[in-house]
Amino acid sequence: NSRGAASLLKDSIPITEFSASGPFEGHDLLRRGFSSVKSELLPSHPLELSEKNFQLNQDKTNFATLRNIQGIHAPLKLQMEFRAVKQVQRLPFLHSSNIALDTLRGDAECIGFEDILNDPSQSEVMGEPHMMMEYKLGLL
After folding, report:
1. InterPro entries per the record (predicted)?
2. How many CB atoms sit inside 10 A of residue 118's CB?
3. How high is the pLDDT of residue 44?
4. What is the mean pLDDT of residues 45-54?
5. Quick one: pLDDT at residue 116?
6. Which of 31, 49, 66, 113 is the most buried (most CB within 10 A)?
7. What is the C-alpha to C-alpha distance for residues 74 and 136, in angstroms, rounded to an integer?
8. What angle do the packed helices 73-87 and 54-70 form, to 10 degrees?
9. Residue 59 has pLDDT above 80, yes or no
């Protein structure tokens, strides 16, 4: 039996070869925390970044055009109105449609993807109102 056990040990991989410095190193949860695969992914298509930043690029183009036509005061006034409208929201446990922001941008008359299929992050699942308000106010 000792000869059989020796042959099994000879064929096994020594433990010293499993070091943490190599191309196949394991992720150390205690030192590095949980890994996020989503943050490490590169865009899969050249237009993906352009589509993610579409609204930002559209706003920049509109502000530049407005500045060239009416002067510096017009885009500054519009940006101030955007900030004021973004601050007005419903309570944290109620969904806010941001209709005032859509009206300022001119998107109120357009039907988009989010109007039909909705954003999954804004689902109709309502949380505990008291806990959500306490969290927003910093009491929890």
Report:
1. Ump1
2. 12
3. 78
4. 85
5. 77
6. 66
7. 34
8. 140
9. yes
* DSSP code per residue over the chain: -HHHHHHHHHHSPPGGG--SSSTTPPP-HHHH----HHHHPPPSSTTHHHHHTHHHHHHHHHHHHHHHHH-THHHHHHHHHHHHHHH----TTS----HHHHHHHT-TT---HHHHT--GGG-S----HHHHHHHHHT--
> 73 phi and psi, to 5 degrees?
-70, -30
HSE (CB half, 13 Å, CA atoms) of 2? 0
* pLDDT the model gives residue 18: 47
Distance of alpha carbon 97 from alpha carbon 99, whole angstroms? 5
Q: Which of 136, 122, 123 is nearest to 91 (CA)?
A: 136
Full-model pTM? 0.54
CB 74 within 8 A of CB 81: no
What does the pLDDT look like over 92-130, one tens digit per residue? 777 777 888 888 888 888 887 777 776 666 666 667 888
